[in-house]
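Kindly go through the entry underneath: sequence plus fold tokens. Please state briefly how this chain folds according to its tokens.
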Amino acid sequence: MASEAYGDVVRRLASAQKGAARSAPAYSRFVNRKIGRLLAALAYKLGMSPNQVTAVSALHTFAGVLLLALVPPSWWLGVLVCLLLVLGYAWDSADGQVARLTGTGSPAGEWLDHVVDATKVVALPLALLIGLYRFDVVEDGWLFVPLVNTVLSSVMFFGMILTEQLRRAHGVASTAATGGRAPWLRSVLVLPTDYGVLCLTFVMYGAPRLFLVVYTLITAATAIFMLLALPKWFRDVRSLTTSAVANS
């Protein structure tokens, strides 16, 4: 590992990286995956395992989450939280890349990655809710927004992961494998639902009302996306039963 040049590792990662899902939003697809590739090359050079990379991702993310709950809103806090969440998200992309590069991927590693993700999508809006309530910086009505976001984020994450796992269990290729490179227009249209964009919005946390206006728009966009996605995912899963009966 140490003898291989960092640039060579980055190029190997680029060739080993799996295709983006058709629904991948623009930041996740064009920015986060590339930052993750650079971090994955660093992790590989340091001899880190995929699970260790997942742990680094969790440390960054949950440090930002704790700060939201414990520290009053300010501009410096918003920038710091943004940086921690962005790095946490990039390291989250890096663990899978390290696994593919080293051939050390495992069901346990995938399970750990999903558990960390499932925790953060709930913990982040709840920490925001706690911080806003503790430091009394906005009217109580605004507190419903992170509460709604908690439910939406949890349901959307679970629905997306479960649909993919059921497809895989029935031998159906993943959307990443069948979709190839995602059309750029679709990636832009779903940008408001991008977790990376949510991370970036915390730079505005020093102006809580402005931040919450943007956060509310993101939450509304997530709700619209979920209302459109859930029926489609249900049809996809129902078709698996139809296919299984037809092939029996």
Remarks:
- The chain has one domain: 25-173+192-239.
- Residues 177-182 have pLDDT under 50 and may be disordered.
- The chain is about 80% helix and 0% strand.
- Residues 25-173+192-239 form a domain with the Four Helix Bundle (Hemerythrin (Met), subunit A) fold (CATH 1.20.120.1760).
